[in-house]
Amino acid sequence: MASEQEIRDALSSVLVPQAARSVTDLNLVRSIQVGDGKVKVTLASTALSDGAKEWVASHARSAIEGMPGVKEASLDFVEAAPQEINRIRHSVAVMSGKGGVGKSLVTALLAIALNRQGHKVGILDADITGPSIPKMFGINSHPGGSPSGILPVQSESGVSVMSINLLLPAEDEAVIWRGPLIAKAIQQFWQEVLWGELDCLMVDLPPGTADAPLTVMQSIPLSGVVIALTPQDLTAMVVRKAVKMAKTMNIPVLGVVENMSYFVVPETDKRIEIFGKSRGAEMAEVAGAPLLGQLPLDPELARLCDEGCIERYASEAFDGLARSFVDTLMNGKGQT
């Protein structure tokens, strides 16, 4: 007779329609009872439409009935809120004191870094009025779900993404909302989206220290923040603001990432600091956290973002950033 773990393993092959993730990845399996050749499985119906429930039930029974010693398989559904189902190990917000520093780019690259190392990753795009995550990942489909929850959209490599742009009729539709509505949308993305089991949820914050970043820091149990910056004199002031906000909210600063740090001339491999001398090490000291990496101005990266193919990006600088971030996050090296 198959064991409970063997049955759970079999259920890992049952994908949820529109989610492209299994019932086990989404943590929908509530209980498994085994005895006398009979198997009874209880799944949460969270975010599943009637059609999706029928599909999942049929394929789950088929997966179980084909196992040794199983004479009868039954399956039931129970209601549960997404927050009861979600199991998120780490939540990391990427913030900046000002706009235009490449915060969303850094968010995307850090998520890709984790994904490439086999971790289950999601991105919550909290930049409600300026969402760019879906564009970089080439995602234009709408989220699925039901009245009980929302299913995030999967990227090409399997990163779960939820963004306001995925709910709009067109990607260039403006979101003209006041602070309370923006805050409510962010809370819904956290509370009503079925993220399932994730090793890390990356949160792309809007710039500054106003309502939206505050809502995230108060609503989501963050493991830490990563601060994105560029090498300009103005950086010092805005980084200090971001650091002070994180510390006021008792959230660790995991590290800083300097974007647009330099440009490499293709013909000579010479580095040119277009925006001035690097401030990365200095700002890392201000933040009391490590300098995770310095990203160059890379035309190839810009091209891939424009084409929605950021997941195909590879470079020596990105590899270094990836190693530093994953090591810092998984080994708890962030500082408060």
| CATH arch. level architecture of the largest domain | 3-Layer(aba) Sandwich
Biggest β-sheet, characterized?
8 strands, mixed
Spans of at least 5 consecutive residues whose pLDDT stays below 50 are none
Which fold name is given in CATH as the topology of the largest domain? Rossmann fold
CATH superfamily of the largest domain: P-loop containing nucleotide triphosphate hydrolases
Q: Give the distance, in angstroms, between the N- and C-terminal Cα atoms.
A: 51 Å
Rounded Rg: 22 Å
How much of the polypeptide forms β-strand, as a percent range?
A: 15-25%
Globally, the shape reads elongated
Give the number of domains.
2
Give the SSE string. Answer: HEEEEHEHEHEHEEEEHEHEHEEEHEHH
Q: What is the SS-derived class?
A: alpha/beta
Give an overview in words.
By secondary structure, the chain is an alpha/beta fold. The protein has 2 domains: 4-80, Fe-S cluster assembly (FSCA) (GMP Synthetase, Chain A, domain 3); 86-330, Rossmann fold (3-Layer(aba) Sandwich), CATH 3.40.50. The chain has 11 helices and 17 strands. The strands form 5 sheets. The protein has an 8-stranded mixed β-sheet with strand order 10-11-7-12-6-13-14-17, sandwiched between helices. A 3-stranded mixed β-sheet has the order 3-4-5, covered by helices on one side. A two-stranded antiparallel sheet has the order 1-2. Helix 4 (103-116) packs across helix 11 (316-330) and helix 6 runs parallel beside helix 7 (211-219). The N and C termini lie far apart (51 Å).
